[in-house]
């Protein structure tokens, strides 16, 4: 978020209870950790240095979503042309292949109102902090 009057970046205060789930050294790029907080299974993923946290449950049939592959997807293109893009923006359900955006939890294909809950996660000093 950017302050419109000064043009400087601002950071909104996170909502929820603060939970330290790992150190940055324990969660290097390309790794993930599944944590249990208040009875919820949440996946914390470090994708190319970007932290994401999602409910570890596919809304389709309850698969452990955060155990799925992180990848991009095929872009719109002309017939018989194939173009891969949006590298590492999606997690794929390991059971049925549904793809969900890591940043919003929204599915790539319209599934009606189904989406995955996302949580705020940040690096604070040497810690990875999840807000639930």
From TrEMBL:
Pfam family, one: Rieske
Keyword Metal-binding tagged: yes
Keywords: 2Fe-2S, Iron, Iron-sulfur, Metal-binding
Ranges of residues in domain Rieske: 19-130
Top-level taxon of the source organism: Bacteria
UniProt keyword Membrane present: no
Single Gene Ontology MF annotation: 2 iron, 2 sulfur cluster binding
Official protein name in the record: Rieske (2Fe-2S) protein
Biological source species: Pseudonocardia broussonetiae
